[in-house]
Write a structure and sequence with these properties.
Two copies of one chain form a homodimer. By secondary structure, chain A is α/β, with parallel strands linked by helices. The first copy, chain A, has eleven helices and 16 strands. In chain A, strands 1, 2, 3, 4, 5, 14, 15 and 16 form an eight-stranded mixed beta sheet that branches. In chain A, strands 6-7-8-9-10-11-12-13 form an eight-stranded parallel beta sheet. In chain A, a hairpin with a 2-residue loop joins strand 15 and strand 16.
Chain lengths: 406, 406
């Protein structure tokens, strides 16, 4: 495997330009400018040649003045549903959740969903935009069986993106007999997480719904990531149930709540209690900042130590036509809807799209330190806030030490 | 002036591919495919040569399958404040309106605001993205005088964008003695519209504030475009005052309310009454869909016949770092925040960014019909909704019959 030398970029958080040497898929060294590349070499005048780094055959990329980020983490999407890369499909559902579900069920066969080709097209687009890891919620129901899981696996095998699936009961769990057994089958087959969907609002029996999916996560040692659109006090109470179960089963660090609109709707005092509870139980919150729906209080969540991650939700599918697959653009939406204007606030959205996602997904060796996996993205921006606000095209994307786009 | 022939594009609303012949800055002919280009020529087999259109010297652009829009109209921005094209400036105000105003006043000298160079850079970017007309609110106060007006004029003179200014009392009108006289001076010098700012919430005397600016608009025969952030019942009541004055002075078609957050916050019945009042008085609503602020009910406004326009608000300035100058991207924000998923709904946002803006600004001969000014934008998209959602780079931009970007 060829060594790679990235010269003169600005590794996020380092505060100085540096050279990064990548070897065997890992970050081997990060040498801030001003320090000699080799242990015995003299300081300032040392030429930054591959030889000076002890890597004579290295491929060299000069990225002076550009920001270097760890790989972007898409923490919530629906690859299996996407129509990306195909012709424009006008949205056909009316403005109700029920009709969107019915349309989804009714038209997926006609449109060839899930499509390995469409999923692959989207994954390639994501990769070009610097996404190295994806968590995707894959529909599982008696009609579709595990076809979605298989399609995502097949597409992912042809792309340089680490794709992790959530077995997602989109069309009901308790209300759709046979689904629970299929979720278990998916987990047995290696799917990385179990999902859930509005245990009260959609599945009508929150306690049994949660007991079922938490039971599966506990038994199979998997992650759990639950869609919670239920708002107000109903959603708040369901968050209490989730916190209780996470603590009781010792699943801290492996549980995420996606959307969690209720957090953005409740009064300050109740919001504070829930944020505290999420922090204590180590339950992550995943937001997408879609449409006009409430965005959870990211600043407050982070101040309390809660992991916050971000994703697109649907991208160009029967649920809606929006989404590009670019996680810096998505981070912009999150920052914008959070009314973040200051650089350090905007940086919270970038953190959610990188380290926050990595924490929620349980990624090992993620980051910009020596020894971390060399999943790197170079952005022609001088600061993290500028990278989010402008989200310019990526200069270079590397996964496991291999330069994929440049 | 050289004739221009755009071949095979999809003029918005025509429902068929067509050839467009541009002559002397105007759309000379729009010939749907299938019809002969010349009056006497045979139908289908006629070659689409410039000669066949009676325009032997025409420049030819083949834009098969691409959408053709009239020039995009930026109906609300603040060119004079922009830092666009310069280095990234971290936002320095805290999260209050008062501190944003104080920061604006305190730092504009240090940062060289208004800057002819920055304004020019932004106008060129806007033009590249297909914007042909801009309404900009220019700060006028005793400290800055008319420097902003002059800077915008100087920058606009070097760009192929039709820029119309609003004399804007950003730092108070009644509360800032000397401002009213300067507004009048601006109108005398040819500024196209008079502005206002939260007559109650900021200027503390809504009746006198409104009487003053409506009086100026009436006397000088100008347009009026007022910032109204005041929310809830206060903002609703101010809308009533605006409707009353527009009717009493016969200023229908020349008055716009920008932001109008209150419209998105009031109960349905009151909202309906105000929408009806705006329609009767012919008062336009201009939205920017910024941050997390309420977006007016666009579908309801359009159904009632109210003109809806759209703009960026601030772009990269001391009020916030966001904004690109691309009106298709801005229309996407408007559609997204309006939870528009269906093509015909999304098209309402495009309408606001084109004909809605043209109507609000009082543009003559705007559109895609023969005789209209040849302000045209070609977008590599197969439908209006796709153009908004994806907002791909523009293939061609023409202003007054001259191809500016291609």
């Amino acid at each position: 495997m060829t060594d790679v030398l990235l010269r003169g970029g600005l590794p996020w958080g380092l505060g100085a330009p540096a050279d990064i040497l990548v070897r065997d898929g890992r970050i081997a060294r990060v040498i801030p400018r001003g320090r000699p590349p080799g242990p015995a070499a003299p300081a300032a005048e040392t030429p930054r040649t591959p030889e000076a780094f002890g890597a004579p055959g290295a491929m060299v990329f000069d990225v002076e003045g550009q920001l270097i980020l760890p790989g972007l983490v898409e923490a919530h999407c629906h690859l299996d549903k996407t129509l990306y890369g195909g012709p424009w499909v006008p949205h056909s559902a009316d403005d109700t959740l029920a009709d969107r579900i019915a349309t989804d069920l009714g038209r997926r066969a006609e449109l060839g969903v899930p499509s390995v080709a469409r999923i692959g097209a989207l994954l390639r687009q994501m990769s070009e935009a610097g996404t190295t890891h994806v968590r995707t919620h894959t529909d599982i129901d008696p009609a579709a069986g595990l076809r979605g899981v298989e399609a995502v696996r097949e597409a992912a095998a042809g792309c340089h993106v680490d794709v992790r699936q959530v077995a997602f009961p989109q069309h009901g769990l308790l209300t759709n007999p046979g689904t629970a057994e299929l979720l278990e089958e998916a987990l047995k087959s290696g799917v990385e997480a179990v999902g859930g969907l509005d245990p009260a609002g959609i599945d009508r029996d929150p306690v049994r719904h949660l007991d079922l999916i938490f039971g599966l996560a506990g038994r199979y040692g998997t992650h759990l990531d639950l869609h919670l659109h239920d708002g107000g006090s109903l959603g708040g109470w369901e968050l209490e149930l989730i916190i209780e179960r996470t603590k009781a089963l010792g699943l801290g660090g492996k549980v995420a709540v996606s959307h969690a609109y209720a957090l953005g709707q409740l009064d300050e005092a109740y919001q504070d209690r829930l944020v505290q509870g999420l922090a204590e139980a180590d339950v992550a919150v995943v937001t997408a900042a879609v449409y006009n729906f409430p965005v959870p209080p990211i600043k407050k969540l982070r101040a309390a130590g809660v992991t916050v991650a971000v994703g697109h939700d649907g991208i160009r599918d029967l649920w809606g036509p929006y989404g590009s697959g670019d996680m810096l653009e998505r981070a912009m939406h999150v920052a914008y809807r959070s009314t973040f204007r200051r650089d350090d606030d905007i940086e919270l959205a970038l953190e959610a799209a990188t380290v926050g996602g990595a924490r929620a997904l349980g990624l090992d060796d993620y980051g910009l330190a020596p020894g971390d996996r060399a999943d790197l993205v170079v952005v022609p921006a001088g600061s993290p806030a500028e990278a989010v606000v402008v989200h310019p095209g990526r200069t270079l994307v590397m996964k496991d030490g291999v330069v994929l786009h440049n």
